[in-house]
Design goal:
single chain, alpha+beta, two-stranded antiparallel sheet, 2 helices
Length: 66
């Protein structure tokens, strides 16, 4: 997503009942300020190396693989 000529990413955390969408930069400080900072479940990601520091297991996003 683009905002004022800056690239922003939508980070999504969800359970069966709740979904949290957070728009921000894709850097370590922004990620740690959001829900991934303390997350211990499975992280679905696009292979950005910083995401592998969070969660207990990882799955690649099929949309990014295609």
């Amino acid at each position: 997503m683009r905002s004022a000529k800056a690239s922003l990413w939508v980070h999504v955390c969800c359970t069966a009942a709740l979904t949290l969408l957070r728009v921000g930069r894709r850097d370590k400080a922004t990620i740690e300020a959001g829900p991934l900072g303390t997350y211990t479940g499975t992280v679905v990601n696009d292979r950005l190396p910083v995401y592998f520091n969070y969660g207990t297991s990882h799955v690649l996003c099929n949309a990014h693989i295609l």
